[in-house]
Specification:
Helices cover 24% and strands 26% of the residues. The chain has 13 helices and 27 strands. The strands form 6 sheets. Strands 17, 18, 19, 20, 21, 22, 23, 26 and 27 form a 9-stranded mixed β-sheet that branches. The protein has a 6-stranded mixed β-sheet with strand order 2-1-13-6-7-10, with no helix packed on it. Strands 4-16-15-11-12 form a 5-stranded mixed β-sheet, with no helix packed on it. The chain is elongated.
């Protein structure tokens, strides 16, 4: 065992701290995505802290997130155990706070090395609960921010029970005596600032005596920054990170949609042809999702991309990934208001990629629409639903003919265009274009200005003027246009 002092109630320094990404139904609903299986990341033992300690938010950062969690301490070596055996290998239960700095998340997303591995970012305690004395399905975790209860979750609300997590991990590695598993956080995790005090407690409220870990207390302080760009990436945040750190766009002080109402109104008015022209002027030629058409002529689509990828059908993979709560169903259950589900179907029009049930689910979730470079089943019914859907056209076949629903929320290809989550999607009778969010306002303004010019040019042509010199306008016609614009209607 290490000679390093052990913070908190642990009898020794753990060899491993393993944390679960998403484990509670409430947190999955808040995040808008529900995993099909548990996934994990590692935290260093140097991140351990004790109750009553401090947690630093470095200078120049803004998103220090807290996550109250139940920590399991392994009591005996565990390798290849079944879920029925798993709990016998847990010695103690206690409270933990899985602190993380979202400003450092981008380049280590998933691994969370710098985000969650900083010194003091895993406080535990203050007391251990004997695991043999409690029911793992009847534990509770609660978190207070400056005395206000902000998180409460019972293990009955877990997507993945503790026994499944332990058994799954033991398939791949040996859990050693003293190792710690952080089991995920329920909804309500948010951001703390210097001066805040965050408390976490784990208890068994339905058991006689309600055994408890006591309140694990952490005080947030300002710490030094000084990150060296010559050594590694600098802290950075965007609105997606703010939304995920605070728990919602509203809590982060952001507009309800990534597209604010003013921008949305501009994009609704701007024709896709005009937007395409302005994108080309900015060096973006390959932003058209080719071959797709609206189920209903006259449809206008504006929203933010949420992506879904199908891979070519392979019978064994369809058996493992095609049924049950697959990636396709998860995407339609998780889509949020104002988002467009964009589906990569490799241009395979000879198979449906959604039908009426999923279209209705997207409508109920407030989705802005669906774009797929594959086919649509129940085409006439989908066309009658008040949801913009752009596709290659109708086809009666189900997924298994051509596709395996594989994954989502990643960069995909749709109709020959690269689409990333968060891109702006705009569609009308001319087709669908992809606009990087950072330039969407600029492109919309330019397209509307061009539309005004084109309307004035059309009036001149209708009045009998020749096209030469007028379209595009030479200096003489430009002066006439500007004079007319200044004069007003």
């Amino acid at each position: 065992m290490s000679s390093t002092p052990v913070p908190g109630p642990l009898p020794g320094t753990p060899g491993k701290i393993i944390a679960v990404h998403l484990a509670y139904e409430s947190r999955a609903a808040q995040r808008g995505r529900r995993p099909a299986a548990p996934s994990y990341f590692l935290k260093p033992s140097s991140s351990l802290g004790a109750s009553g300690g401090t947690v630093e938010r470095p200078e120049g950062t803004e998103l220090l997130g807290f996550e109250g969690e139940i920590a399991l301490v392994i009591g005996s070596p565990t390798r290849g155990v079944s879920p029925a055996e798993a709990w016998n290998h847990v010695a103690w239960v206690t409270a933990s706070n899985d602190w993380g700095l979202y400003d450092l998340r981008a380049n280590d997303r998933g691994s969370n090395v710098r985000n969650k591995g900083r010194d003091g970012y895993t406080p535990l305690g203050p007391r251990l609960i004997d695991a043999r004395a409690v029911d793992p399905a009847a534990l509770r975790v609660r978190t207070w921010l400056n005395g206000e209860l902000v998180q409460e979750g019972e293990t009955a609300g877990l997507i993945f029970p503790f026994a499944q997590i332990i058994a799954d991990l033991s398939q791949h590695l040996t859990l050693e005596t003293g190792d710690v598993i952080l089991t995920g956080t329920p909804a309500g995790a948010s951001v703390a600032v210097p001066g805040d005090v965050v408390e976490v407690e784990v208890d068994a409220p339905h058991l006689a005596g309600a055994p408890s870990s006591g309140r694990l207390t952490s005080r947030v302080i300002a710490g030094p920054g000084g990150f060296d760009p010559a050594v590694g990436s600098l802290p950075s945040v965007d609105d997606l990170q703010r939304e995920e750190a605070w728990g919602s766009r509203e809590a982060a002080g952001l507009p309800a949609s990534a597209i604010n109402p003013e921008l949305r109104d501009k994009l609704l008015k701007a024709p896709v042809a005009g937007l395409s022209q302005q994108l080309r002027r900015r060096g973006l030629d390959n932003v058209s999702i080719d071959g797709v058409h609206a189920t209903r002529p006259g449809t206008k689509l504006v929203g933010v991309a949420r992506t879904l990828r199908f891979v070519p059908n392979r019978e064994d993979l369809f058996r493992s990934h095609g049924g049950g709560y697959n990636a396709q169903k998860r995407a339609f259950d998780a889509v949020r208001e104002g988002e467009v589900i964009v589906i990569e179907a490799r241009g395979e029009r000879d198979c449906g990629t959604l039908g009426d049930v999923l279209a209705l689910r997207a409508l109920a979730r407030g989705a802005a629409g669906v774009v797929t470079d594959g086919g649509v089943r129940d085409y006439a019914t989908v066309a009658g639903i008040d949801l913009p859907v752009f596709s290659q056209g109708p086809h009666p076949a189900v997924l298994g003919r051509k596709h395996v629903p594989w994954d989502g929320d990643l960069t995909i290809a749709c109709g020959g265009a690269t689409v990333q989550p968060g891109d702006v999607i705009v569609g009308d009778d001319d087709g669908v274009v992809v606009i990087p969010l950072a330039i969407a306002e600029e492109v919309a303004d330019a397209a509307l200005a061009q539309e005004s010019e084109d309307a004035w040019i059309a009036q001149q042509v209708a009045a009998g003027h020749p096209v030469h010199g007028l379209f595009p306008m030479n200096a003489e016609w430009r002066a006439r246009y500007e004079a007319a614009t200044e004069a007003g209607p």
